[in-house]
Structures are given as C-alpha cells and as structure tokens.
Amino acid sequence: MGRIILPAPLPPYRVLTGMADRFGRTLAYRREAAGDLAGEITGVTDGAGREFRLVLTTQAQRAEEARKPHTASLSSPDSPRPLSAPSFPDTLPGTEYGADSGIRLSAVWLMHDPAYPESLPGAPLARYTYTEAGELLAVYDRSNTQVRAFTYDAQHPGRMVGHRYAGRPEMRYRYDDAGRVVEQLNPAGLSYRYLYEQDRITVTDSLNRREVLHTEGGAGLKRVVKKELADGSVTHSGYDAAGRLTAQTDAAGRRTEYGLNVVSGDITDITTPDGRETKFYYNDGNQLTAVVYPDGLESRREYDEPGRLVSETSRSGETVRYRYDDAHSELPATTTDATGSTRQMTWSRYGQLLAFTDCSGYQTRYEYDRFGQMTAVHREEGISLYRHYDNRGRLTSVKDAQGRETQYEYNAAGDLTAVITPDGNRSETQYDAWGKAVSTTQGGLTRSMEYDAAGRVISLTNENGSHSVFSYDALDRLVQQGGFDGRTQRYHYDLTGKLTQSEDEGLVTLWYYDESDRITHRTVNGEPAEQWRYDGHGWLTDISHLSEGHRVAVHYGYDDKGRLTGERQTVENPETGELLWQHETTHAYNEQGLANRVTPDSLPPVEWLTYGSGYLAGMKLGGTPLVEYTRDRLHRETVRSFGSMAGSNAAYELTSTYTPAGRLQSQHLNSLVYDRDYGWNDNGDLVRISGPRQTREYGYSATGRLESVRTLAPGLDIRIPYATDPAGNRLPDPELHPDSTLTAWPDNRIAEDAHYVYHYDEYGRLTEKTDRIPTGVIRTDDERTHHYHYDSQHRLVFHTRIQHGEPLVESRYLYDPLSRRTGKRVWRRERDLTGWMSLSRKPEVTWYGWDGDRLTTVQTDTTRIQTVYEPGSFAPLIRIETDNGEREKAQCRSLAEKLQQEGSEDGHGVVFPAELVGLLDRLEGEIRANCVSSESRQWLAQCGLTVERLAAQIEPVYLPERKIHLYHCDHRGLPLALISEDGNTAWSAEYDEWGNQLNEENPHHLHQPYRLPGQQYDKESGLYYNRNRYYDPLQGRYITQDPIGLEGGWSLYAYPLNPVNGIDPLGLSPADVALIRRKDQLNHQRAWDILSDTYEDMKRLNLGGTDQFFHCMAFCRVSKLNDAGVSRSAKGLGYEKEIRDYGLNLFGMYGRKVKLSHSEMIEDNKKDLAVNDHGLTCPSTTDCSDRCSDYINPEHKKTIKALQDAGYLK
C-alpha cells in the first residue's frame, strides 16, 4: 500500500470502506456517522490488525479552544505565530478550490496493536496545530517535541513564508504579486533570488552565481530545454510531445538520446555520444525483463503473475531465484543463488525481518519494539546485542551480552553530539546551524572544519592548529588545495566536468580522454606518462608507461562474459624490444560463477574449496590438498590444518576461539611454541597478548593511539613508551628524552628524532636522512646519509646510502602503470681486483609479479619465491620456492610451438594462424588429460592424423622440485614462522608492534621479506615497500604523503597510530584489523546487513545512473540507527570496498566491472567515499529520500518511478 492512508475523494454516491492490494494487504476505514464530522474517516485498521484513531477538529472547535484561558495545549510556546483568540474565526472562507469545511487532522493515536496489546503509547504518534486561517502551524512527534514549524503571510492565506526543522534556523521566502517565490533566505547558508521572464527563469545565489533555465511548452508540459550554468556552460534537453525526455546535450555539445515506448513511456534504449547503445525490454506490466549492454552482454529478470521478481540473471550468467510463501507474500521467503545455496527469511506482520537463516541452517534473530525499532540481535554462538532508544526514537545506548554499554547523546536537531564508550571516554561533535560538523573532540584533542555559505569545506584545522584550505569554482568543483604543510595543488576541468589538468607545485599533468570519456593518456610536464587501450567491447586491454627507461605494461584478458581471466605484466627494453620480464596470472570460474581457481605464473593451479555461497573450506595446489578449515556456526575459522596429512592428524593444526563478544580469544597450535591468548578491554582494544615465552601489554590514549608496550618474560619487564604530538606525529618520549623541548610538528614533517635528521622537498617527500650527531659530539664525517629520488608520480626510483662521500649501496626501482613495483636493481660496495672498495659492476636484479594488489612472485638470479594469500586478504598463506635450475628443467615447448619451430622442411619454421594455435593448445590439454573429445578426433581425422601420432610429438612435462611452507601469522597477518609440510619450523622471527624485526632464526637461509600486511622489506634501504608508498618502521610512518590525500586521513604520513589493531596493506588508508577480521562482529554484521541489503536492491532494480544514489541511501540507512559503532563499521566497510575496487582496478555497479586507470580509480574512490559520508551524516530529522535525491537525474522519470515503487523515493 506504500504511503497511502487516506483515499482520493470519490463521488458522493460511493463510500469507500476499505482497500486491498494484490498481496491481500488491507486498510479498513471507519467513518463518523453523525455530527460535524459525519462521513469523515476517523479510524483506520491496517492489515496487521493495528487500529489508529484520527483526531479531526473543526474550525469552530479550534476557535473555541483558543478562547479558553490555557491554549498552550494546542500550541508550543516556541510556535512561530501564537494563537490569538480574538482573531480566530469560527469558519473559514472559501478558496479558489471551493468551500473549506475547516476540518483538520489534529492527532493520530494508536488504539490497538495485537502484537503489543498491553503497552499502548500514552501520547499521540503525531500531533498537528493550525493557525486561525486553518494553515498547518506545527508538527509534533510522539515525544511532544516540535519537529516542524511554519509561518504564513497574513495577507495571503495559505502562502508559506517560512519553515524550519527542530533545532534548525528558519528558512524564509518572499513572493511577487503573481505568487511566485522571488527570494529564498537561508540563515548561515545560501540564499537565492528568482527572476521570472517569458520562458526563462534566472536563479542567483548569495555568492552571486547565476543559473538560467529556459523553458518551452505550456501548462503541465512546460519543460527546461536549456540550462545556462554558473560558469557560462550550457546544456540542452529535448522532449517528445508528451513532455518525456528524449535527448540531452552536454556543455561540450555531445548528445545522449533516449528511445521511449510511445504508450508506456518506458525507456527502450539509450544511445551515448559515442554511438554505444543500451537496450531495455519490458513485460506487459512495464517491468524490466532484460538489459542488453553496449558490449553485447545481457542481464535478465523474470516475474510471476502477481509481478514479483522470481529470478534475475546477471551479465555474467549467474542466476538468483526468489521464492515466496504464498500468493499474498510480497517479501521472499527464500533466495537461492547461483551456487545453489538457499537463504531463508522470516518476516513479521509489519514486514520486519524476524529471522535470517543462512545456507548452512544457521540463524540470526531480530527483535523490535512497538515502534518498529530494532531492540535486539541474536546470532549463533551466543552473541547478542541490545539497543535502547529515547522517546523520540533516537538510539541512546547499545549493550552487548557481557553488559558493556556505549551511550549516545544528541542535540535538539537530532545530531549525534557525544559518544561515551564503556570505559567512560567521551568523544564530542559540534555542529553549525545546518547540521554540518564544525569540530570533533576526543581525548582533549580537537579537529575543526570551516564552511562557506554554499556548505563547502574551506578550511580544516588539525590537532596541532595547522590549516588546510580549499577553493572551488562556480560549479562547486575543487580548484585549489593548500595542505597543512603549505603544499599547493590545483585542478582544471573541461566543460563536462572531467579533470583535464592538475598542478602539484612544479608538476603539470594533462589528462586526455576518448569520445566515451575513457582516459587514453596523460602527460607530465610535457613528457608522455601512462597510456590506456580498450577493445571493441570497451574493456581495458592494456596500460603502459616508461619507468626508468623501461617500457612497462599490464595486459588484461576476459572471457565471453566479460570476466577477468588473466593479467600479464611485461617489462621491455624500448630501444631493442627485448622482453626483460614477464609474469602472468590466470583466473577461472566454476559453473556457479565463483572465481575459485587461479593459476600463478609457472605454478600448478591453486583451487579454493568452498561451501555454501563461498565460505572457505580448503585449498589445493595442483590437485593436492594443502590446507583445510573448520568453521563455527558464524562461519568463523576455528581450525586450520596444513601438510600432506591436512585434516586428520595434520602436522600443523591451529585452533582459534572467540570471546562471547566475538573477538579473537586464543590461537593454539599442536606445538605450544606459537600459542597466543588475547585480552581485550571494554572498548574492544587489544590490551594483552600472552604466549609461552612472553606477554605484551598495550596502553592506549583516550584517542585510541598506542602509547606504550610492556614486555613481560622471566627476568624481564620492559616498558617502551610512544609519544606523539596532537596530530599523531612521533615525538621524543619525555621519559627517555627529558631534555627535549619538541611539542609538535606543525607541518607534519618530522625534522629529526633520536637517530636521524630528515629533509623534505616541496611535495613533502623525504629526500635525505642523515645520522644525527648528538650535542657535544665532534663530527667525524663518517655519518651515513640516505638520499631518495622520485619520479613524477612520487614513486621512489633511486636510493643511495653514502658514507665518507662514497656510496655504500645504490638501488633503482621500476613500477608498472598501477604503481606496483615490478623490478629493482641493487649495487652493493665490494672490493674490486685492485683492492679498492667500489660499487659492484653487475647489480643484483629482482623481478616482481602481481595478482591485483598482492605481490605473488619474487624472482632473483637463483630462485623464484611465490606466495598464495588467504582469499580476500593480504595475509600470506603458502610459500612456494623453486630454484631456477628446476624451473628451467620444467620449461617445455607447447605442441603448437614445437610444430611451428620444426614444421618447415628448410628449418626456418612456420607461423600458424591464431585459430590453429588455439585448437592445438586445446588438443594438447585433452591429450595430457587422456580425455580427447570426439570433436577433436574428427578434426584430426580430417587432417589425416591420429591421437597417437600427435601425442608422440608432445614434449614430456618435468615436475620441478618445490619447497612448500605455510606462513604462520599473527592476528594482523604478519608472518611469525614458516612451517614445512612435516610440521617443522624452517624460519621464525619476532617483531615489535610497528613491524621492526627484533630477532630472526633462519637456519635454512630462507628469504622472507614480508612484514605487516602489504609490506616487503628492502635490505638496502631498511624501508618497507607498501604498495603505493614506502614505510619507515623506525618512525612508524611513510616517507611520502598519501596519494589519495585527505581521504586516507588528516595526517598524510601516518600509518595506523594503533598498529596493534590497524593495518594499511595498500599504503593508502588505515583499515582496522577488527573490521577485516573479528573485532566488534555485531556492529560489523549490522552494517554489513544494511549495506548488502541495499546493494542487493541496487542489483535487483538494475537502474543505470544510480550508483551514487544507492551509495548515499545505504549509508543514510545506517545513520538512522544512530549507532556510532555501526556507523564506524559501515565507514570501514566503505573504505574496504573502495580499497578492494582500487586494488582490482574495478569500477561500476553490475556484473563485470570496468577497468580504470590508477588516477581514475582514485578519483572514483574519492567520489564514492564522499557520497558515503554524505549519507552517513544525514541529520536525524531528514529523510534518506530527501538526503539522496540529488544523486538522481530529475529527467529520468522511469528511474524515479522504479525507485518510488521500491520505496527509495517519495
């Protein structure tokens, strides 16, 4: 029934008594039989049996009430215009619409609720007051708090001249003689002036920006056909005779056309300016049944007779099916995904989810109060969460099963002003008049934000009092940014809003696009940078650039469903064309569409064994089981076994247990040496890790930063403090350096510490690090100095360490266009034939191969080390090492290669067509697998060949000897040991919390460079390569600023300031280990439920151009829980999603994602994260529909209708 309560007026001879829809939902109306309200509806009973009383009053009753001595019961003391008895008439004059009976709705009461018969509310659900002219004066909620107020023009009844929300300033309006708004006045915000002319409206805001709307048509068919924007650009729109949008021309003159069904108005096709067409198909009920995309792929939907969705098939062919309990069920009872896994849902009579049963039969139950607010969540393994609300429906506390409570406070407008954690720590947020956060304070540290009249951030002030400032153009696009350290960046856009030029101090980057708005290449200071190429489907096929004089490229392959099947990295000498390095990873999908098989370069396939919808059960290498997992009823890992006897009697078996709150409690091995027990405080901070050899205890500041580490062992008790300035930059600790006077680094650039002196360039990049000479010590010129040099993308390309004016080591680094390091060359100092010490003539060369953002291959002159990671994680799982000699033995020619090389009589070889090579490759695979198809046998017969004859030509496969180890990691994913297949420890190490290696046992001289997730140790510099930056473990921070700027945090150098719980595998943005793994499972799951439900709706509706709308709606829905914990989890999930998409270089909503460039991905990530924040900061008084509607093109009527039908728009 949607939002319909009262029906439209009917002819006098018909009296509506009820309504029923196709699902059997009903509304029954009770009408007054006599008196002044005769015939009026005063009662409604819904299909759930709830009875509502509608209190109606007449003008005479309100006048009489106004004449009584105490009128406050009808009007709040702060009403915009108090009621005046002498001016309150008993009747109302007629209007241009006819007579006014004066009957108004004054209150709505809940009189009966079968689910809560004993606890009816003692106050109306809503209350309304009116002016003496019968105009709506104020709206009160169930707590009797005024939430809306209105002011009217006394000379023009019914004309609203002002309104406001609770706790917000009043917005005012002025009108002309024709009754049109000519001015809108918004205190502390933008005000607008409107000028009306023939077929033209000019809108000017208080920043003097002007927008002109040109219209055509009359009455209800008047449409805006031309729009002059504030920057002078112009867009056009075209409509058919029915006023429906048929074309849009952007400011660059590019035209997008919309084909419409003449009768229904449904969009049948969209043709973009580059000629690419998307087609839409519908059934007789105007429901979307299929979409054919420009690349030829198709998505489909099926519906049952009542119009319910029963199946949807994605672009890549996976089908999800929906089943309903009966003909009256609108909500599905089960969903079955492409893997065959079925989930069950149980709904209340009010449409609330009561129980969700996953594919394994494990259930989550939800409880609600009488107002529909969720009060409890009960999950498997005894995990529960309880929620409490005030009488305005705002969440006031969340309590877990152990009684730990987080409390929330609000201002009058409903903005969350304070969060009190279980230990009593308080974080506060202050807001301006319009609900924008202007400061946040936690642990005595404050950050503040300043906005202009347009609501744009113009200044940030960090905890040190330093400022970062921003400027915008007339269309609200960022054009200049000044960092906390004074670094200035500028941006320029074309008429359509695409970035065309960016300036970073002395670097000028130009961006170029094709007619499909896909980036094609960039230049930096006039020199070529990256180049992008696409195939006929529009899929990215390769990206290339020059790095240190080498042509480095990334190539992509896809299957016929548009799914990524392979990634190949190449490094060439551009002068000779010699291929110096090549690395390829291929991906395969099972029949259900799961990417469960990956083949690393020169390795057998890695196969992931899953159950249900993809929960990990085990891993095979080349068909041999290596790892098995056992999981609990929440699908958390409880047992991990490894070795040739993986499973029962495994040589390595790791058992994990969890606290009642869902946090990791212990990890125990069948070998005690690596046992660990974890202790947590009430806030969810990890405060203790205990093992058989030692215990570490962690102390935190009120802001959650790691302040100290205490190590306890027999005969040992050491406490190491960590001091930072207010903004999080490392300071000399006053306990260890009492003479230090440093209190802050205002520009976030640390100039010195106890060990080194640091220097930076204008981009904030570390350029020099020199041994620090203590006061009073004589300089001896033996101080070591590190020098760092970077390319135009701020990637470290050269490092040298000098002593006595001579280089001790030099290194150079190569990167692919995605900023992944693909190679390094290191020259070390050695004694030459004359006895002099100098750099080696021949460098040590290391090549790197990647699968997405994870380093999977390290190739040296002697060996190849390959790593398999836990799925969806940066925690390494399996290490595979193969000597180069063994690899060379394993190299053999394919059948096609051998026949081409030996196929001609003169010995010069032949070249086969690509189709023939493909046939031979397929045939070779069938012969090796001893399963030659009848089709292949028939083809061979046509060629006069036999299987046996061709099999004799196939070179035998040599299986190289490989060393396989399991990575045993800590809770973050930092390797602590390498375990052989027989359960022995082949390597082990101990680290501090920042990743510094404290000791190592390496009897077999294994190369193990991995540190914290995403990091690889470089011996030559002492730095850790961290995907997009280099990390200095001694400082616990990066040596360059964050490539994604403030999206990664206010401190552009910071690694997570609590490295016990936080990691940053991409070198971009901190991620809480707890969010990724186990901490605060309930908040995480609740956020996940909301976000994933919205995402499923997004996929189900499959409406183009709604990506940002659904981003906003999903996070706005989270905000309505008023739960800071859930909001933090949602924000973390948002970051993880963007990190994942960035890591995979993916963009888009449905099915196959479109590959983008490094810079495009960063821009898209920024946009998505900004939209997430916009939704997450929605004021409690604002509806999500209102908050997010700006992300929908108002001309897309079909999209709007679909969103309205789905309940997303009003």
Automatic annotation (TrEMBL):
Organism: Escherichia coli
Residue ranges, annotated region (Disordered): 60-95
Assigned protein family: Belongs to the RHS family.
Protein origin, superkingdom: Bacteria
Composition skew (Low complexity), residue ranges: 72-87
Coiled coil: none
Transmembrane regions listed in the UniProt entry: none
Domain Teneurin-like YD-shell, first and last residues per copy: 445-565
NCBIfam families found in the cross-reference section: Rhs_assc_core, RHS_core, YD_repeat_2x
Domain annotation RHS protein conserved region: ranges: 964-1000
Keywords noted in UniProt: Repeat
Protein name: RHS Repeat family protein
